[in-house]
């Protein structure tokens, strides 16, 4: 059975007149009659009772009518979905983000702008360690990431757009002896127990801290996100290094101090594949190109 047979059947069933149905379909009546007979032969059922005075549906024709309407409506819907997908107004975009992107407002602004411009694009977001983001992007499990490039090696298959940058701060329990110091040096922290932010290729959670401090710190506890690490700091279980953008959000029981001899900053960088062909992802890229992020920091 072909779709054209259902279209021909539907026209005759709605018109109950072969001549009018043929005119509606822009074909000649004999051709329409032939196609209906072919459909009846395919189904091994009579669909219409015909005589010189009237055309009416048989019981089999009445049973086929709602199904034909449903199938043809689904075909129209499928065609529209494909058209919208090709136009980039329908589809799915998978985004990975780091905590700094969320609390800096970068992620929220990107999501809001996309949803306003393309309300039918589905956005899936996942918080991931920067290294895990990079791997998922390379393996095709993510379409875009918002996170720091500082601990990653630039890859020529990706485009990188730095959206914001924040100073690095040491987070201390409020009752910590160093909490009274306005400024702290890296050497002041040599004897401290650090809370590491673990992730792919960084099982201990010391990579970024080692790069910032100039030595490998002693990792006493580990956390799977900076927010959890700050919770452990509040509990008095250690110190950690975080982006300054987190400080206003998590100040209960935690103090943040500048590291005077550390000039490493934590960026929020958008990373996407250069050879992207997914229309929805390309629409996401166009939306982001029209946003200036740094002015809101």
3D architecture notes:
There is one protein chain. With 297 residues, the chain is an alpha/beta fold. It folds into three domains: 3-86, Arc Repressor Mutant, subunit A, CATH 1.10.10; 91-163 and 268-296, Periplasmic binding protein-like II (D-Maltodextrin-Binding Protein, domain 2), CATH 3.40.190; 165-265, 3-Layer(aba) Sandwich (D-Maltodextrin-Binding Protein, domain 2), CATH 3.40.190. 39% of the residues lie in helices and 24% in strands. The protein is built from ten helices and twelve strands. The chain has helices at 3-15, 18-25, 29-43, 59-86, 99-103, 106-117, 130-138, 207-213, 226-234, 279-289; strands at residues 48-50, 55-57, 91-97, 121-127, 144-147, 158-173, 183-184, 193-197, 218-223, 240-243, 254-259, 265-273. The strands form three sheets. Strands 3, 4, 5, 6, 7, 10, 11 and 12 form an eight-stranded mixed β-sheet that branches. A two-stranded antiparallel ribbon has the order 1-2. A hairpin with a 4-residue loop joins strand 1 and strand 2 (55-57). The chain is rod-shaped, with a radius of gyration of 32 Å. The mean pLDDT is 90. InterPro entries: LysR_HTH_N, LysR_subst-bd, WH-like_DNA-bd_sf, WH_DNA-bd_sf. One of its GO terms (cellular component) is protein-DNA complex.
């Amino acid at each position: 059975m072909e779709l054209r047979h259902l279209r021909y059947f539907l026209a005759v069933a709605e018109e109950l007149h072969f001549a009018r149905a043929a005119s509606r379909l822009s074909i000649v009546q004999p051709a329409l009659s032939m196609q209906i007979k072919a459909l009846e032969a395919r189904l091994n059922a009579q669909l219409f009772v015909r005589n010189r005075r009237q055309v009416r549906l048989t019981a089999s024709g009445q049973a086929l009518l709602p199904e034909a309407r449903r199938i043809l409506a689904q075909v129209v819907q499928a065609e529209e979905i494909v058209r919208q997908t090709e136009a980039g107004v329908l589809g799915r975009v998978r985004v990975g983000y780091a905590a700094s992107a969320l609390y800096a407002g970068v992620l929220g602004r990107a999501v809001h702008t996309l949803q306003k411009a393309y309300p039918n694009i589905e956005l899936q977001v996942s918080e991931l360690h920067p290294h895990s983001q990079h791997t998922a992007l390379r393996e095709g499990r993510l379409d875009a990431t918002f996170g720091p490039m500082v601990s990653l090696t630039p890859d020529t298959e990706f485009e990188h757009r730095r959206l914001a940058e924040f100073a690095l701060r040491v987070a201390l329990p409020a009752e910590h002896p160093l909490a009274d110091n306005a400024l702290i040096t890296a050497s002041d922290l040599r004897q401290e127990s650090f809370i590491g932010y673990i992730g792919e290729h960084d099982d201990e959670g010391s990579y970024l801290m080692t790069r910032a401090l100039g030595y490998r710190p002693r990792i006493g506890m580990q956390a799977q996100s900076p927010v959890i690490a700050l919770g452990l700091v509040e509990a008095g279980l250690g110190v950690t290094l975080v982006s300054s953008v987190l400080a206003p959000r998590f100040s209960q029981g935690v103090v943040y101090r500048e590291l005077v001899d550390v000039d490493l900053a934590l960026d929020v960088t958008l990373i996407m594949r250069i050879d992207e062909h997914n229309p929805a992802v390309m629409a996401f890229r166009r939306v982001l190109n029209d946003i200036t992020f740094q002015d809101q920091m």
